[in-house]
Every structure is written in C-alpha cells, then in structure tokens.
Structure prediction request, 182 residues.
Amino acid sequence: MARLLILEYPDPRLGLAAAPVTEVDDEIRTLVSDMLETMYVASGIGLAATQVNVLKRVLVIDMSETRNEPYCLINPEIVFAEGKISTEEGCLSVPEVYDYVERAERIKVEFLDRNGEPAELEAEELLAVCVQHEIDHLDGKLFVDYLSELKRQRLKKKALKKTRRTPSEATRSRQSTSARLI
Ligand code: GNR
Ligand code: NI
Prediction:
C-alpha cells in the first residue's frame, strides 16, 4: 500500500475528465488499495482517482464510523435519481472550504467491483451525495463549481496565496530571487 498525493484546487488537473477502465486488473486493484489508504490517512469519506492524478474512472467511499466498510466503484453510472437534498460539502482537494450544494437525494448507481463484476448500489442522503461528489471529480468537476462566481473567485485567491506560502514554493521563489540578483 502507498499513500498518494492529493491534488489541490486550483490545480488544472482536477478539471480533466477520467477515462473508463477497460480491464479490472492488478494495477487497478493496487490503485484502489492505495486510494483507500490515502482516503483513510486524510480522514475523508470518499476519494476519486482524479484527485490523485490518475485519470481512470475509479472511486472509493467509506462512510462507516469504524473506517472498515469501503465501497469501491469502477466505471460508475447513475441510472436513477430522485429528490433533492442540500448538504454542506467539503473536499480533500479544496481544504478548509465548506458550502451547501443541492444534489439528488436518492440514486441507483451501476459499476464494476474490484473483481470486475457488475454490481449496483442504491444510496440515499449522505452516501448518495458522496457518490455524486466523487463522480463529479471523474468528470473534472469540483463542488465549488456549483457556487457563485464571486465565492469561487474569493476562494481561488485564498488558495493561490496559500500555495505561495508552502515551504517548497517559498524556497523556489527565494532561489529565483537570488538567481535574479546574480
Ligand atoms: O471527506 C469528504 N467529505 C464530504 C462531505 C460532504 C460531501 C462530500 C464529501 S466527499 C469528501 C472527500 C472528498 O473530497 N472526496 O472527493
Ligand atoms: Ni472531493
């Protein structure tokens, strides 16, 4: 198992669409277990492959208190949706931002499991919200895309400021400054 790096907004790679998995092989199963470890370490309830810079339609979810009831959905397709629910969402790729998003309240999703077998899941409330949030990631969409332009501009500015404050970035900018001085 390995921990993977989670991309953060406004990284443009989070806006790319992921491709369907053509074969559920050991490489995919390794990706799934690495994604689960990464999600558990980050204390998230879900994670999409796009967030760890892998453009394949794979997502994992674990909503249990005990953190030992993982769902793994490969090539997920929502085949039924009804109702509306507004939930305060957060995202491991958009740290420290929480806001309300309206989504379907109940869904049915078809997918392949870790063995490549077709499976389906009926979900409601937070589990349904989480599945929709993760499938959005696979389509290159973030929950902040549902917010107003004003809110998104504000948090983009904040995120870019934070990037400049990270040590590696600070080192790079110091280095480029001294390079210019020479
Ligand atoms: O950990 C997460 N919590 C969460 C809360 C409300 C709605 C969606 C989520 S998913 C998020 C983890 C994440 O970023 N998955 O992509
Ligand atoms: Ni997310």
The chain has four helices and seven strands. Confidence is low (pLDDT under 50) at residues 169-182. The chain has one domain: 12-167.
